[in-house]
Amino acid sequence: ADMAMREDPIYKEISKRFHENPDQFADAFARAWFKLLHRDMGPRTRYMGPEVPEEDLIWQDPVPAGNTDCDVDAVKVRITESGLTVQEMVETAWASASTFRGSDIRGGANGARIRLAPQKDWEANKPEQLARALGVLEGIAADTGVSVADVIVLAGNVGIEQASGASVPFTPGRGDAAQEQTDVESFAVLEPFSDGFRNYHNKGLKVTPEQMLLDKAQLLGLTAPEMTVLVGGMRALGISADGHGVFTDTPGKLTNDFFVNL
Fold first, then answer.
1. Number of other residues whose CB lies within 10 A of the CB of residue 29
2. Neighbouring-strand partners of residue 200
3. Alpha helices in the chain, H assignment, sequence order
4. pTM of the full structure
5. Are 161 and 92 in the same domain?
């Protein structure tokens, strides 16, 4: 109730400050209103028009511009010689990219926040395996001048190429966010407590894995065939949080064994 703004000791401090400093009230209201109406538009680079503010705000999940001028083939050679397995490369790329939410344009591979708190410690991301893979990929990024975000995605491509023999296109230009550009509490809500693509489901959830899989596919903007082929492909590559569902004798090869044996 309104009385809480005066009687509650914490709200009273805030109300008193705004009462005595109308300029602070006006600025805080404008910022809160702007956030309310623009929270679902993604980073500031998506804004258009003459009134786009110059200031980067942390709730916009800012990401510095990346390098588009790089020797992709040379970086791929470094990744290929790194000793990372197909499963490690693909699973790291998936963990980075699959936080994307089409509902508010948050998450995703751009920014490489997979290496920052809180994402680096999420149970679904297998922190120990992730730390090993990132240690290798960050070294390659440092040596080549390519962003970690691009190296993670490119490594995922290399893994798919090794598993399938097909060529996977790549577009560079992702940037690397810093920890101070990342609101840990705000990003905590993106943590996947269920990810059917990785066969991961937190035991404490009351929602079924099937429901959560459909929800994640919808947030990622996937069609039913895309969702299905990604589940089968990930299992064929040996990606499963608990080892179940890998219906193939050749994990790491992109085959349709999952569907044949299913």
1. 11
2. 195
3. 4-7, 9-20, 22-38, 72-80, 86-97, 127-144, 148-164, 184-188, 209-219, 224-236, 257-261
4. 0.94
5. yes
Same domain membership, residue 223 and residue 199: yes
For 166, the 3-state DSSP assignment is coil
Q: Please state, in angstroms and rounded to a whole number, the distance separating the CA atoms of residues 129 and 117.
A: 16
Residues 101 and 180 in one domain: yes
In the beta sheet, which residues pair with residue 194? 201
The pair of three-digit structure tokens given for residue 148, joined into one six-digit string: 């970690």
The pLDDT profile of the chain, 262 residues, written as one tens digit per residue, is 899 999 999 999 999 999 999 999 999 999 999 999 999 999 999 999 999 999 999 999 999 999 999 999 999 999 999 999 999 999 999 999 999 999 999 999 999 999 999 999 999 999 999 999 999 999 999 999 999 999 999 999 999 999 999 999 999 999 999 999 999 999 999 999 999 999 999 988 999 999 999 999 999 999 999 999 999 999 999 999 999 999 999 999 999 999 999 9
The contacts found for 248-253 with CB under 8 angstroms, 24 or more apart, are 251/87, 252/85, 252/86, 252/87, 252/163, 253/163, 253/164
Residues 173, 86 share a domain: yes
Cβ contact 124:142 at 8 Å = no
Residue among 65, 75, 68 at smallest CA distance from 45: 65
